[in-house]
Amino acid sequence: MVGMRRSLVTAVVAAVIAPLALSACGDNKKPAAASFKEAPSASAEPSAPPTEAAAVPIELSVTPAAGKKNVPLSAELGLQVSGAKITSVTLTDGKGKAVPGKLRDDGSSWVPGRTLKPKQTYAASVVATSDSGLTKTVTTSFTTMGTPARKTGTGLYLFDNHTYGVAMPVVVEFNPGIKKADRAAVQKRMFVQTSPAQPGVWSWTSSGTQAYYRAKEYWTPGTTLTVRIAVGGVPTGGGRYGDRDRGATAKIGRDFRMTVDNKTKKMTVTQDGKVVRTAPVSLGRPSKPSVSGTLVVMDKLPQTVFDTTDTDGAAGYRTDIEFAQRITWSGQYIHSAPWSVGSQGRTNVSHGCVNVSPSNARWLFDKTLIGDPVTVKGTGVKADYGDGWTPWNLSWNEFVKGSALPVPEALG
Question: Which residues form the signal peptide (predicted)?
Answer without folding.
Answer: 1-23
